[in-house]
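Bumping my old thread because nobody answered last time. Still need a sequence for this structure:
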């Protein structure tokens, strides 16, 4: 029997979480001016250093707008946010992905995966095709949904790597936990064999260098989930 080490959150982490909660719940609407840092520190009974560091972290996530000689304001995180902002939204919901967030992830995957296939089609090597086949078969051999989801991520991440575009694999990896969550859902609903079958069909098209067919298949498959024809929202 194994137990994980428990780490208590720091005061800065608690401060950031508290303000994120108030912003995402709407208790602190966009455009609201926060009290001065000194006042926040006194009210929350923490040091001004903790407040300052927390404010900077929240600004980097797009939640706050720091204006010189004017103050600190609640920013429109939809315009100013990053992937870290999205993760904060998911964590605020208890780690549960809402329908609009699932749709956003799937729409982004259509853009990234089809671009990876299009770019990779120009000079993908036999060795790279062999790697994709190995990752596909790893899904079929997976003994649990977690292993299958990890192998599915590796397959699509390698597609991004083989595209030759430096940023694609970095972008794809930045939301690994979210995409793996969706593959876990898929396995719960349809089973590991269904995930293997889908990936195998895509891999076979790429092996046959039918890149247009592979891109169309990927779009169609993900669009079915976005439209609700293949249930994945729950």
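Sorry it took so long. Here it is:
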């Amino acid at each position: 029997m194994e137990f994980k080490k428990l780490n208590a959150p720091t005061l800065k982490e608690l401060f950031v979480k508290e303000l994120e909660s108030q912003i995402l719940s709407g208790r602190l609407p966009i455009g609201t001016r926060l009290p001065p840092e000194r006042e926040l520190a006194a009210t929350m009974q923490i040091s001004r250093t903790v407040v300052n560091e927390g404010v900077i972290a929240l600004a980097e996530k797009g939640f706050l707008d720091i204006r010189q000689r004017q103050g600190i304001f609640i920013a429109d995180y939809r315009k100013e946010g990053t992937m870290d902002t999205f993760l904060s939204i998911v964590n605020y919901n208890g780690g549960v992905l809402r329908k609009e967030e699932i749709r956003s992830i799937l729409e982004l995957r259509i853009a990234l995966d089809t671009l990876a296939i299009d770019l990779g089609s120009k000079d993908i090597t036999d060795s790279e095709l062999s790697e994709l086949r190995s990752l596909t078969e790893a899904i079929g051999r997976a003994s649990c949904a977690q292993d299958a989801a990890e192998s599915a991520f590796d397959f699509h991440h390698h597609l991004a790597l083989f595209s030759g575009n430096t940023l694609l694999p970095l972008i794809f990896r930045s939301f690994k936990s979210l995409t793996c969550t969706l593959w876990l859902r898929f396995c719960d609903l349809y089973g590991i064999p269904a995930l293997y079958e889908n990936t195998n069909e895509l891999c076979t098209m790429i092996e046959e260098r039918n890149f247009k067919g592979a891109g169309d298949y990927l779009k169609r498959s993900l669009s079915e989930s976005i439209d609700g024809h293949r249930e994945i929202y729950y």
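The chain has two domains: 11-84, 97-227. Let me know if any region looks off to you.
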